[in-house]
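Fold it.
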Amino acid sequence: MRALSTKTLIISILVLLPILTYSQAPSPSFTKLGKSITKRQTSDIEKARAIYDWVCDNIAYDTTHTIYTSTECLNSLTGTHLAYCELYGALCKTIGIECNIIYGIAKDIYGNFDNNEHSGISLEIDKDTLLIDPTWGAKGTNASQPMLSNHRD
């Protein structure tokens, strides 16, 4: 496992819109998966990172922009930015980590604002607020090549 740090999980959402608490009750399949992903971790930060890595490694970006929910995302292993966040939130909830989905507009890799909507995650662990973006750490559209590999370390 990679070394953990707060910097590892920082996202680049710069203009924030409303923040919504992830409140969907996890289904048994999500609970089983969340516990399986985090069975070797002891601290909440390690568990949050393990879920982040799993989502980033196993979900491909949905270029059709039709997969928006955690259930659809898990079933198809593809999703939009919102589906990544919904899935991350659902898995965190199964292990007792509360998180919020942040809606806003992000900068692109060149530092320019991308006028498309984007989502990220805010969670509190050990009195620290962490902002993460599982979409930007994810594999590309075919889950074989990172979209932006420097957002994983």
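The two ends are 11 Å apart (CA to CA).
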